[in-house]
Amino acid sequence: MRTTIILKTASNYLLPVLLVFSIFILLRGHYLPGGGFVGGLIASIAFILHSFANGLPKTKELLIMHPGFLLPMGLAIAFLSGFAPVALFDLPFMTGLWSHDPVAILGSVGSALFFDIGVYLVVNGVTLTIIFTISESA
Amino acid sequence: MLTAILTGFLFSIFLVFTGKFFKGKLSILASLIPLGLFVYFFQFIPAIAGGEVIMRSYEWIPSFNVDLGFKLDGLSLLFSLMITGIGFLVFAYTSSYLKGHEYLDRFYGYLASFMGAMLGLVLSDNMITLFVFWELTSITSFFLIGFNNTNPASRKSALTALGITGIGGLFLLAGALLLNNMTGTYSISEMLSMSEAIRENEFYFLAVIFIFGAAFTKSAQFPFHFWLPGAMKAPTPVSTYLHSATMVKAGIYLLMRFTPVLGGENIWNTTLIVVGGITMVYSAIHTIFRTDLKGILAYSTISALGILVFLTGLGTQEAFLAAAVFIIVHAFYKATLFLVTGIIDHQTHTRDVTRLSGLNKIMLPVGIAGILAAISSAGIPPTIGFVGKELTYEASLHYESLVIFLMIAIVVTKILLLYAGFVAGIKPFTGKLPEELSNTKKPGFVLWAPPLLLAILGIVFGIAPFIIEAPLIKPVVEAMGADASNIHLALWHGFNTVFILSLITIGVGTALYFIIKPSKGLENGIARFDFIAPENILTKFNKIFMSISNFWTNFFQNGYLRNYISIIILFLVVLVGYIMIGSTRFTIDYNSLSKITVYEITTTLILIAGIFYTVFTDSRLAAVAAMGVVGLSICLIFVFYSAPDLAMTQFSIDTLTVILFVLVLYKLPKYLKLSDYKTRLRDGILSTIFGLIITTLALEVLSEPVSKEVGDFYAANSYIEAHGKNVVNVILVDFRGVDTLMEISVLSIAAVGVFGLMKLRLKMKDRRRYADTGQNTENNKN
């Protein structure tokens, strides 16, 4: 694919911005529109845009590890956030645990946030795995 | 008790890691497991004989009424002792029989798991637990029967056995659910007290059918019997274990266990008598036509199972007593005969009875065991077999109706079984030793001791039947719901009709043994009738079934994604359309709708234009872009109706879909006209109808009275309970979090699937490239 120099330059700046934006979307999800699912999608779009502009090998280099590794990581975080109440307090699976005092910027932090981070990672991993695999093999 | 059941399974897990140590000289140590369990169960004898019933219950799934409930009464004790006792002998015997076998450790693993499953089966009081163990016996026996897995015939028999007994398992599950529906419990002991209510229930008939279905398949009753002779492909220790004391007796156990719950009605008794009767006569006749020792034993086993079903069907106290004794009789002599056959096979490498004779000169202890077992199976005094046969005759003679037919059936069966026992137990050891067998080696102690021990016990119990009377037989009869106080087992019953019948049986049977010699001619003779044998009918049915499903699959799953989608949509159109015709009111309450704004009109126009452009454009890329326009327009509509979360997600998804399409399309050839006018018309009509139906459905939903309960609950509680203000997100990560967990798991599986499929194709491509260019494929392999 031929790419314009504008896109190439822009994508280098867009990647961090979009990633920060995706995390912003992830974190605000509890109070305002957003959440792990959309956040994950935006993060993957950021990487895909980068790969369009700079080629897949460059993006892979940037990622260090294969996006497939995000799947078990995300699943584990999501599962552990649900399992924590069982292990720590003998409460039913996926009971919400909450910090007493609201944390600055984030608001009240609880197990649901970690669950959402798990969703974020899985969605990101799934999208990148599928799209990278297809663009490599097609 | 749970530990006792799990021991077998734990041992096989243990073998996974330590198997290589148990392959060699240590293998005999494996038999300590069943021996230990035998001792464990043995110590319950005084308590059970004293009328006690031991119950143990462990919580499992209380919300479904399912617990790990175990019950040790007379019936389960008898079976447990047989499973562990004969298990011990089989384990020990195997260490010599399969000495040096590459997969001996695996074999012990299967055998131990099977033993655990069998113990669980006979001890379970909860029907769901019973079902689980029932299926486990089917699965573990599949591995045992197919142990020689390089032999296709062996694999096929294992599959047949699994198929038949597996179907039976489903019957058992259905029976369990139905009985639970009728009584509100899965506990068999609790069902006992509700026996009358069950029998008056309108579904009683169905429950009986289900239990019969399970028992008849497992216990190889006609016409499901054919898996059992096939299962003879297994190594002999397996046949011994499965067919004398365990697997096939599970069906009998089930019938006996349910006799006090479901029994006593005409349908129960008559069916059992008829099925058991047909089975016992049919397979007893079959024994004459076999020349393979194991074939003879297989058919005589089926026949013996028929007798047990028949006796259970008679339903009198005498019959239960006879059945209880006959279970022990059969376990002893059949295990002995199988073990003896195994030794003959092991030493001479043949099981063809026409070629075997005079082996007692080489293996005297084995010969003694075989002959003792044969006379026990023939019911000649002073063996336990004689006691069993007398009781069987007595029970049949005292039945209330059609005694003459019952007597003919049972006497003919017994005569033929005597013949079969003689052929299997005496014929190989008497007469002249043929030249070709004169080099046969002597079997070792570990091989001949188990059958001899069993055979001698058969005589000891025959001479002194009171040894087993109080501890084993009486509790069994009681467990089957009959009074056992006046039972007295004795070798000598006096000179009466039964004794005369016994004499006739022994006389005619022995005469038969000298007249009919097993031969290939006879075997081939019966082969002519194979076309009406249930097995072949089933095979034909299987073939037809396969071709129909082949056709069916190819028709619907032809590999074209577009066809799949059309079929799915067509199905939905027909189903939803059928329901909506007649029930749709087609009224729209215009007052409840919000005003249409100019933004909405504009967006809708763009959307429609996008659709038309997608359909009619000549360029793939333009079609994809137009699809993106459609998606984004829908996004906007979400925004208008204040669903920002949905809009955001839809926006991202649409972006990704377009990227995905572009990635794939980039590699496809330039635009081709793939569909003709007719196909397009068909698809157009289909999608228009589908769209209309969905629209009508949406409007219809609007006119339904709205229940806001769920929405209100989430709205009210999302901040209080889940500390979140965005209700949609709170539902996703908190209220319905488990759903989300499942969804992300499914997503991950899909990603792994795509990755696997694509990478696999890449590898194939590589391989083909290597092959095409004629490069050295050896390198590739390395």
TrEMBL record, chain A:
It comes from the Bacteria. The chain crosses the membrane at residues 12-31, 37-56, 68-89, 109-134. Keywords: Cell membrane, Membrane, Transmembrane, Transmembrane helix. GO terms for cellular component: plasma membrane. It is a multi-pass membrane protein. Its main location: membrane. Signal peptide: none annotated. It is found in: Cell membrane. Residues 6-128 form the Na+/H+ antiporter MnhB subunit-related protein domain. Belongs to the CPA3 antiporters (TC 2.A.63) subunit B family. NCBIfam families: PRK12509.1. PANTHER family: NA(+)/H(+) ANTIPORTER SUBUNIT B, NA(+)_H(+) ANTIPORTER SUBUNIT B. This is Multisubunit sodium/proton antiporter, MrpB subunit. It comes from Christiangramia echinicola.
